[in-house]
Structure formats: C-alpha cells, structure tokens
Amino acid sequence: MRQQLKKSNFVVLFLLIFILFLSSCQIQSSTKIQPKKEAIKLYWFIPDGMRADPDVFNIYKWAEEGKLPNIKKMMDNGAYGYAIPDFPSHTPANFASLLTGSHPIVHGVADGPMHIEGFPLDKPSIAGFSSVAKKVPPIWTIMEENEKKVVLLSIPGSTPPELKEGITIRGRWGGWGADTYNVVYEPEEKLKERKAAGRGFRLFFLGLPLTKFSEKTDAENWKNAPKSFSEAKESKLEAHGLNIYAYIYDSTNDQIGNYDRIAFSLDKKNIIADLKQGEWSNWAPVELKFKDAPFDSDIKIKVINLWANSNFRVRILYNNLNEFITEPSSVANELTTNVGPMVDFADNWPPQLIYESEDKETFLEEARMSLEWHRKAVPFIYEKYKPDIFIQDTYTPNQMLESRWWHRSIDTTREDYSEEKAQEAWKDILELYQGLDAIMGEAIKNADENTYIVLSSDHGICSLKRLVKLNNLFAKKGWLKFTINEKTGEPIIDWNNTKVIYLKMAHVYVNPKGLGGNWRRGSGEEYEKLRDEVIEALKSLEDDNGVKPVVNAIKWEDAPQFFELPTDRIGDIVLEVTPGYSWFEEMDKSLKIFADPLTSGYKQTIDGKKNKCMWTPFMIMGPGVKKGYEIKEPIELIDQMPTLLQLMGIGIPSYVQGSVLEEIFK
Tens digits of per-residue pLDDT, 336-373? Predict the structure, then answer.
C-alpha cells in the first residue's frame, strides 16, 4: 500500500514538474515573440511665413483640388485647421511661442532685436533669434530629457545649441558659428542709385552687408583670360574670407563696346566660371574663413545683370553648411556630400533681390534650390541619423510672400490689379506651396505608424502698400537728431540729443533727457508729458487717403494686458499697425513720412486675432488623432506644443500657457 502511495506521489510530482516546465517554456516563448513597442516619434515642419486662411490662401481647397497631394493625405488621415500668431507677429517671437507653448510674457522673446535697460540703444542687447533669449525651455529640451534623439534643421532659436546629445543644423541668426550668408555684388558707381535704401543693404539693417559695392578697374595681371574686344575690366568680390576676381569682358567682335560676359577666378589664372547674363555656374569648392580659421565650402555664381558699359550685378551663393554651424561638426560634410551644398532659403532680410527686374527670376531659381535641398535632406536625415524627433524649417515662404514680385499682383484692392498679372503670380505661389507639400511627402514616406506628422507656421503675410517713416516724423518734431553719410546714404543718429526714436519692430523709446549712453527707462512728470505728446502725434498720423496707420499706441506698463509682452524687453510705447502699412526705421533728408515700398508683403505688428492674412496652417496626423477632422475654430500657436506632449505621453511643464486640443483626440 505504501509503495502504491509513493508511486502515486511520484507520478503527481512528476506531472507538476512537467506542467511547470511547459508553462515556463510558453512564457519564454511568449516573451520572445512579443513585438517590441515602438517609441512615439514626431516630425514637425514649420516653414516660416506659410500663410493659410479660408479666404485667399485656402490651402485645404487647393488640396481638395489635387494640387497639394500630401496635404490632402494629412487632411484625410488627421486633423486640420488654422492657427493665430502672437503679437508682434514676428518670426523669433512666434517660433518661441510655438516651441515653448507660452506667450512672450513668459518665454521673453518680445521681438527680434530687443533692448534692455543698462545697454545702449544703438544696437540690440538681446537677439531674439538666439537660443539664450528664451526664459523657459523649448520642446526639444523636454524631448531630450525624455531620452528622445532630436534633429533640428534651420530652426530659429536653436543656436547656440541647447541639445546635448542631438543634432543641431544651422539654426538662423543665432549668433553662433560661421553664417555664410549669400551676397549680391555691384560696382561702386551703382551705389549712387542705391543710396536711398540707406542701411537696407545690411543684415537686419545693422549687420554685415548683404549687397557689396566693389571697386571696378582695368583688368591687370590675368593669365589665360578670355579675349576681350574692349578694354577688359575687373572687380574683387570679397566675403567670408574669400576673394573672387571678376573679369568683365566683351566677347563680340562688332566694333562696339558692349560687355557681355564675366569670367571668375580665385587667382587670376584658373577660370572657375565664365558666364553671360542670366547664367549660373556649377558649385565650385573653395576655402572660406571663420575668425581666421579656414574651412572647406562651396560657391555658386550667377550674373543677374551685365550692362553694356561693364556695370554688373552678380549673386554668389555660399554653401550654408559648414563645420562651425552644425553640432556635431561632422554633420555638415555628411549633408553636403549626400544632399549637396545647402541653399537654406531664397534672398535674405532685408530683401536684396528686389531692385532689378531680373531679380525676380533669380529669386525663383534660389527658391527652387532651397525647397529641393530641404526635400532631399528629409530622407537622408531619417536614414543616416534615425531621429525620434525631427523639426525642420525653411525661410523661403516668408521671403517670397514679402518680396516685391508676388503679393502686389494678387491683391485685388490695388489700383493696378489685373487678372493676367494675378494668374501669373498665383502660378509661382502654387509652385512654392507644392515645394512645401513635397517636403511633407518625404516625411510621410519615411515615418512609421508611431510617428506624429505636424505642419504649422509662425505667421502669415499680409499685403503691404505703404511705409510709415516714423523717425522722419520724430525728426520733424525736433525729437530726433541725425545726419546722413553722404557716400552710403546711411543715417548717423545723434543719440545724446535724440529724445524719441522708433526701433524695430514695434517700439518707440522716449526720454526727455536724451537717449545716449546706457538706456534707462524714463519716469516723472516731464517723461509722462513727452510720452503723451508722442502718442498723440502717432494717433494723429494720417495718409493722403485718410487712413490712420496707428491702431494702438500702448504704454509699456499696459503691454502685458494688451499684447502678452514682457515689460523688461520692450520700448516706452508699443505700436500696432493698420494692415497695408508698415513701420520703417530708416530716415532721410526729405523727412517724408509716407512712402511706397519696393516690397509687397509684411507681418510685423499686425494683430493676428483681427486679420486672417496672419493665419497659418495647423495639421496633425498620427496615433490617437481623429481622421478627416476639421478643427472648428482657429487655435493659438501656444496650443500646439502641449497637445503634442500630451499625445506623446510626456508631462506638460508648469510654464506652458497653451491648452491641449482635446477635440482632435479619438
């Protein structure tokens, strides 16, 4: 009996061990075949100045018509609508709003050039495009803290780099690295025609020249130069530590002095390009310098104009990538080798391709180059760097819609409007939007099912008709003192004897004791009296057509309530402009207050809450987002960042002011 019990117990024990063994195998097997959960990713495309509104720039209608197939794909597979920018509707302020989820009163970027007490007003003391201008962290810092690999491409406010492990490519005007901006060259004698632009040839009217006027002389010491049937001329074109020699010659043996070609050389021996008007060279390798340190780069040359008398207008593109403007530095060479020399955006700011009729085609060619480069960069970055978070920008939409050539042709309220001109302009604008659509298409192709695809922008662009030269007004009143550099046309301000001045983009500075030295905000009865006089003068301004350009002139202490602006980074008076008008800082001897601009689009100091031309797109598709959902009302820019964090399961910081867009969730 005992033996039978022992035998029975042994069988039960054996069966139990066998069952446990099978269970263990099943658990191990189940663990092995369980697919690993993919990390949530994000692609965010933020093209600068991409206007979208239901009345004029109805991109959703264009998509329904088949003109923007990738935007249509996003409409079908996600949520879409419009977004309203923050005042003063300027790039640095609104990129900061988008990427921190807060208004300028919190993130601190109240403008591009900002002035604070204790520093002179003759130059900005804080640059809004710099990463150090933000008072709170942006989304990429939060993402990196959550162990996401981040790539930033051409994002304002991203440099000097804040990423510790990720990749920062170029940024824009952040005061970091070798910014190899592109340059227009003309002979010194052409400066006489350009003097009215004053500081309009300098980066942001204050920096290095974007158009250079170089000496033109008889050609000397050239070897192997092309034969010229008129006395050959030469000019030295210099930028970024590189000298390029232009040999201007007459190739036609027709007994007439009509210069028609320019040969370019780095040493007057070897010709790197020989071009006639309208032609581009190939990219040529060169060596540039940054703080006396040499680095490899590339140039591409176009002869925009060549007059028979040997005067010229030449455009040189410098590869916008280099080892000093990417982090890690090796990324610059990898992108240049695999994608090509970078054309980040067309033209510059202030625009240079607005003075000659041939500039229009040059702008379009640069725009196509920039959009194609950004399109090709997307698949390479995904394949090479495999980012979890990829945020990309190009400045080309802003440049095109602000330029001389397009917005004026589509504005039906202008006296010279014609259907023929409008159709031609809309054709070019559609090509721009199709280029943006193609960039989105590359992102969609390279994204997986766990990736959020987002399209938005910082602000729209409104039609510009008139400039308001506020500093001419203040000079007329005796509040501003200046002289003009007779050679360049640039104004020279007498700061000690100036009591009132307008400085970009929205600010008037007032001090009855003068604005020289380190600026301090005024106070007291005399200050308040002068400030009230200035506000009254501004509100009384009226154009010949009866339009008053000043919508609001707000005292600095009221700016938080009116515009959500921080009081420590604004002037004594903050201005809101009537759409169609733009404040212009430059002054001249004429002291005329109103002028017709060459450009035809603008956005600074227009209130987006009142004007649909300032609206931008907001589109999102990905896990947990409704499909084919049109957002009922325009959102604020600051709503986008917290919505993305919520979708990605990342905590929303306490400083964020935006609301989560729960209506788009499934």
Answer: 999 999 999 999 989 999 999 999 999 999 999 999 99
Q: For 187-246, what is each residue's pLDDT tens digit?
A: 999 888 887 778 888 877 778 889 999 999 999 999 989 999 999 999 999 999 999 999
Contact criterion met (CB below 8 Å) for 88 and 79: no
Distance (Å, whole) CA 301 – CA 95? 32
pLDDT at 318 over 50: yes
Range list of β-strands (E), 292-370: 293-306, 312-318, 326-327
> Six-digit token pair at 55?
């009345």
Radius of gyration of the chain (CA): 29
Q: Quick check: 627 and 74 in contact, CB under 8 A? A: no
How far is residue 345's CA from residue 366's CA, in Å, rounded to a whole number?
Answer: 7
Contact residues for 358 (Cβ-Cβ < 8 A; gap 6+): 277, 278, 304, 305, 313
Instruction: Report whether 226 contacts 261 (CB < 8 A).
Output: yes
**Owner of token pair 């009591």:** 499
Give the count of alpha carbons within 13 A of 97, CB side only: 30
Nearest to 93 by CA among 114, 74, 124: 114
Strands (E), 85-181: 113-114, 126-127, 150-153, 167-169
Please give the Cα distance from 232 to 220 (Å, whole number).
Answer: 9
Cβ(169)–Cβ(153) below 8 Å: yes
Mean pLDDT of 100-108: 98
Q: Which of 430, 407, 192 is nearest to 311 (CA)?
A: 192
For the segment 38-57, the average pLDDT, to the nearest whole number, is 94
Residue 261 DSSP one-character state: E
Task: Let me know if 99 is exposed, middle or buried by CB neighbors in 10 A (0-12, 13-18, 19+).
Answer: buried
Q: 201-230 burial, b for 16+ CB within 10 Å, e for fewer?
A: bbbbbeeebbbbbbebeebeebeebeebbb
Q: Which long-range contacts (CB under 8 A, 24 or more apart) does 222-229 make?
A: 222/247, 222/265, 222/268, 222/269, 223/268, 223/269, 224/269, 224/270, 224/271, 225/249, 225/263, 225/268, 225/271, 226/251, 226/261, 226/263, 226/271, 226/274, 227/251, 229/253, 229/254
φ, ψ (nearest 5 deg) of residue 398: -60, -45
pLDDT at residue 192, as a whole number: 83
